[in-house]
Amino acid sequence: QVQLVESGGGLVQAGGSLRLSCAASGRTLSSYAMGWFRQAPGKEREFVGGIRRSGGNTYYADSVKGRFTISRDNAKNTVYLQMNSLKPEDTAVYYCAARDGNSAFFPTPSGYAYWGQGTQVTVSS
């Protein structure tokens, strides 16, 4: 089993930046492809992007492509979501998730076995 804990959320102004971290324990992070999801109130959980076990290939939803960057440091058992040029519509609870696979593109939440508790990101107008 792997435990995931997100951190780095907060309140930022539109156009600002924020970096989320997802720290893993219990298992080596390199065993998992990782995904980032977000969920706004009253909306379905949305796939933000993903990264393969060793990094390299990444995938981003059209809504964040060009603004968000996913990276991972397997030596530190941590995956990151760098968010730039934030917009109010980016406001959501952000979750990291681990999957027993190796594809950057896997948008279905049920495919991920392990989830963090989520961290709130609020972007003001």
Please name the defining characteristics of this protein.
125 residues; mainly beta; 7-stranded mixed beta sheet; 4-stranded antiparallel beta sheet; 11 strands; globular
Characterization of this structure:
With 125 residues, the protein is an all-beta fold. 0% of the residues lie in helices and 49% in strands. The protein is built from no helices and 11 strands. The chain has strands at residues 3-7, 10-13, 18-25, 33-39, 46-51, 58-60, 68-73, 78-83, 92-99, 114-115, 119-124. The strands form 2 sheets. Strands 2, 4, 5, 6, 9, 10 and 11 form a 7-stranded mixed β-sheet that branches. It is globular, with a radius of gyration of 13 Å. The model has no long low-confidence stretch (mean pLDDT 96).
Write the layout of secondary structure elements.
Layout: E1 3-7, E2 10-13, E3 18-25, E4 33-39, E5 46-51, E6 58-60, E7 68-73, E8 78-83, E9 92-99, E10 114-115, E11 119-124
Parallel strand pairs: 2-11
Antiparallel strand pairs: 1-3, 3-8, 4-5, 4-9, 5-6, 7-8, 9-10, 9-11
In short:
This protein is mostly beta strands and 125 residues long. It contains no helices and 11 strands. Strands 2, 4, 5, 6, 9, 10 and 11 form a 7-stranded mixed β-sheet that branches. Strands 1-3-8-7 form a 4-stranded antiparallel β-sheet, with no helix packed on it.
